[in-house]
Amino acid sequence: EALVGKFFGARQSAKMTKAVKLLFLWGTGLAVGFTLVYLTGINTILRLLTSQQELIQQAQPYIIWVILIPLASFSSFIWDGIYIGATASAAMRNTLLGATFLVFAPVYFLLNPFWEIHTLWLAMVLFMLARGGIQTFLYKRAVIGRMKTITAA
Question: What is the pTM of this model?
Answer without folding.
Answer: 0.90
